[in-house]
Amino acid sequence: MGNGILDIGISGLLTAQNQLLTTSHNISNVATPGYNRQQVILNTNTPQSSGAGFVGRGVHSTTVQRIYNQFLVNQSLQIQTQSQSLDSHFAQIKQLDDMLGDTTSGLSPALQNFFSALQDVASNPSVIPSRQAMISNGEALAARFQSMDQRMSQMREDINAQVTSIVVEVNSLAGQLAEINQQITLAEGASGGQPANDMLDQRDELINRLSKLINTDTIRESNGSVSIFVGNGQALVVGSQVLSLKAIQSPDDPSDLTLGLISRNNTIQIHEDQITGGVLGGLLSFRSETLDNAQNALGRIAITLAHSFNEQHQLGVDLNGDMGENFFTVSSPKVISALTNNPASNITASISDHGALTTSDYQFSYDGTNYTLTRLSDNTSVSTLVAPSGGAPLVLDGISVTGATILTNERFRIQPTVNGAKDIAVNIADTTKIAAAAPNRTNAAVTNIGTGKISAGTVNPLPLDPNLQQPLTITFHAPYDGQYDVTGTGAGLPATNQAYTEGADISFNGYTFQISGNPAAGDIFTITPNLNGSADNRNALLLGALQTKNTVENGTASYQSAYGQLVSQIGNKTRELEVTSKSQANFLAQIENTIQSTSGVNLDEEAANLMRFQQAYQAASKIIEMSNTLFDSILRIR
Description:
single chain; five-stranded antiparallel beta sheet; 10 helices; 44% helix; cell projection; structural molecule activity
């Protein structure tokens, strides 16, 4: 009996000791990240059969179990990786929103100042200081475009640096996971399958840190290890084996860094649309969904402004009597050959319709049969069976491919507007070169007796007619029969017996004008070169009208409204991400609170357990003491 009671007391003492040790361990790790509360699982010893029934033989510790809810942890990982992605995207777009929406350093003030200076030239076309102010404000406008583009390019470089840094951190975590996988397998094997709780917590904490950086999928293997997959199922950790990520140049745009997975000395690209979570997913989504579009949109405004202003400026005459030159320099499309292309392959691309430009990038490819130009924002495409040429270009959204030396399955990225803001600059330094005047003057002869009047006239769109400034004479028939003759030098001249329609366009030598009223027989109207137009502001007024003219997006938006749309889009997206990221963070906090309420260490509860297990330990000691007393009593029997 003594030995039986002693064994029971010892079993109780040992289990109470295990419980005290485990409780103390919990208390010590109350602040340890990723720690899950542990408890000792007890079971009764096999009872002893007797004639009076089964007599208990004490207790033993089956295992030390961590309080862990796999479902909640998986849910937490999914929410956390989404939350980190949203936070990362929001942090980046907030910088862009602040820059674009700034009322002092944004584009709007510079745009307004330039056109205000232009209006001053229109009011004082011969005043040199006004002309100098126009050039200076044009340079300030170009500098504003360039500084905003430079800031966007800096953000792109910062993203590349962060991608590189994150890849290093991901590889470090992957290596630690592979190592701890091996340790867990060995430890649990040596202990007969008992869970290595602290190692499991450490591994879960590593997975938790990894999910903050990149979206992952985990599979728990039968040997206790965990395999980690990224992207579209690419293995990163398999048991104790680890693969490495690498920051590589994007095959389509080497200026952007993307992800590659190193496998057997080969680097396999992980497509960016497969990286949907973590800080890395947020950075890549910001670059592809927001930054690229914003930089293209700003470039489109710069290109459309420069081109439309140049076109109108070339239709005027400067103080020297010469036709106007390009006021701004205009960027050309950026063409990028894929890294896999033959170095000898090339294409020629240009902008054929500046008003039709979009904010998308394009891809030109050849599959062995079709030459295809694709708008990447929505995959709209046009194709031809014959290689594009100057006489038969392949055109989409104002982008023309006019030549291609390309092999089967090769591709080129075309970025029509990405360098628009970077490359814009004022092309004129001499104030006399500003073409504020119109090239021709119209006059009615003083001897006219009818009520006919001739308009000032306008120059037809480019290209200029070589006979633009050749004098023209319009003479109405006498006797008057409703017809007139046009004489002068140029195509279609002389033109006789032209029917007169009041207010109708009359166009010769690239110059269009109208005659109104009722001309009389023999009335004469003339168009002559504007040889002394220092006080003429007609072309300056037409240049000023471009400020509110819809020249962007197929004639649906002005420069300012196009910029306003960009600011609005970025602002709305910023607000959307701010709200969504806060909501996701709150959801994550709720899940983590739920996990903590189950798996976290509660000091009050542990203190109560400590007292309870102490009492159990003391009671078991009393059983041992009682057993010893009984044994001594037996020994004293004679």
